[in-house]
Amino acid sequence: xxxxxxxxxxxxxxxxxxISICIGYYLISNVVDNLRxxxxxxxxxxxxxxxxxxxxxxxxxxxxxMSYGRVYLVGIVNTLLLSALIIVFSTLLGFFxxxxxxxxxxxxxxxxxxxxxxxxxxPLLIQIVFxxxxxxxxxxxxxxxxxxxxxxxxxxxxxxxxxxxxxPGFIWTFISALLAIICxxxxxxxxxxxxxxxxHRLPYYYPSLFALLAFVTAVFVLTGKxxxxxxxxxxxxxxxxxxxIPTAFAAAFVAMTIYRSASIGESVRAGIQSIDPGQIEAAxxxxxxxxxxxWFIIIPQAARxxxxxxxxxxxxIVKESSLAVAIGFPELVSVFMQTSLNQTGRAIEIVLMVMGxxxxxxxxxxxxxxxxxKRIQLxxx
Length: 381
What we know:
Blueprint: H1 5-37, H2 68-101, H3 106-121, H4 124-135, E1 146-148, E2 152-155, E3 158-161, E4 163-166, H5 170-198, H6 205-222, E5 227-230, E6 233-235, E7 238-240, E8 243-246, H7 247-273, H8 277-285, H9 290-320, H10 332-344, H11 347-376
Antiparallel strand pairs: 1-2, 2-3, 3-8, 4-5, 6-7
């Protein structure tokens, strides 16, 4: 057994797991015993108790009569929404900045370089506070809001925009749209297979897309157009109706998106520069335009070098979203590790629940992206 490498590795792994479980059990038992001696309860039964406080902004329904468990869920949803939007937009902006860094135009290349150097080297917390205090807090009051088409409004309280109001018959439009998306995916895969075999796209590709769109539109009209928009209107000192995004959310989103796009831009630049310049020269020699060369030849190969650091940056974004607590955005740390902890006194339980969420979110993102990373890596042999 000593000379069996595979078996020896499994035994060592099992030993490490057992030791880790024992250490964890000892620490938890020690904490519980100490709390019991101090006559302090330990448990998670408090999550079913009524919270009794309001949350300034929530994506899901919430009122003070709901439980601490609901507060925990509100904080998770708000955190995930902020993190997801930052990940999407910072990645898109970062790709744009990274490509600009390699532009033959000196002005464009230098502008993107100073963009990266400035925003990457100013602490994120300072940028968040700057956008909140200097930019969004100085906007006009609701009565003097900036307006776009008398539908979208921007003021020092937030951004107001129309909200969809779904009628009972909208379910049929939703089902038809879902079927259309499935048909589109099947059509797209069939078209790609056809294009690889024949060399050009199916002649009825665009007519098929138009037919799917017409099908969904026809279902929507025949069911009585079961969708209306609630437009925000000024009533008293604030707007009523529609949807609302607070300035704290907007400031955190803008600051974190710009900050992380600088780091992503550097990863994109390094990934593109790792590709042999002969690839670009060969594409140019056969008449490939620069944009198609970048999109179909360079980026797919550079993705193998870009994705590993990008995974780490996305994980960091999720954890950095907790900095929004500094400007009062009701994310998980704000509503659960502050307000709920102050009311219940269950510091250990609440900290463990918050740590558990961030760990699960990070491990999920890491697992999914690592699986994709394995698929796109070059396979030897």
